[in-house]
Amino acid sequence: MAKKSNPEMDMSRIPCHIGIIMDGNGRWAKKRFLPRTAGHTQGASVFKSIARYCNKIGVKYLTVYAFSTENWKRPQDEVDAIMNLLRRYLKDSTNFKSENIKLKFVGDLEVLPQDIRDLIDNAEHESENATGLVCNLAVNYGGRDEVVHAVRKLAKKVKDGELDADDISEQMISDNCYTNYMPDPDLIIRPSGEFRLSNFLLWQSAYSEFWFSNVLWPDFKPKHLDEAIIAYQQRDRRFGGV
Ligand code: FPP
Description:
7 helices; 6 strands; about 40% helix; globular; binds farnesyl diphosphate
């Protein structure tokens, strides 16, 4: 069993899948009179340390919201800066290889610049045999967009006579989501004092537990993750039952 870092944390009940909305980078930078992009740089560094920590304490899946389908509306220099952080992260395979972390990407990747798509393919391939944390980066990800893609795939099957519309099930929608290789998130964390899902894992979060904090993502530390997990462990999950 992984090393206990907080005496209150029950290491036998670590959430299997944690989702994180890495929010507050811009405000962190503004408070320091820095450009917003400096907040994203610090945010990327925090992401690395939190992924490493999740791996250490035995979280099986971590999904982080790195870039949404709506984030293209941001100023071009900010979009470019986030894409460059992704490039930098993907080029340095020590980020995941030496950690036994399996890297995966969820989202509509087809519209990303070709060099990033190649780097993603390479990183996914290089880490495919890792047995530790499965670390999913949501890039050009939108929960509604994901459901639209899934429904389109099923609609084509109906049109081609391969599927009866009445047989469409929840499981079929799940199976056609980008996240089809992982369980639904047990715990979703949003720092920075916002209480929104912002199009993150809409379908998958039906029974997720939520944890919010005023800490800005670039200030987020393993101790905050411990707090979230301890709060999660005190919840009574009934999944609609009694
Ligand atoms: C939200 O904070 C954050 C984003 C839209 C981008 C998150 C991206 C990263 C942390 C870097 C990604 C790179 C890697 C390698 C994972 P915000 O900018 O909306 O903050 P604000 O609400 O304070 O303005």
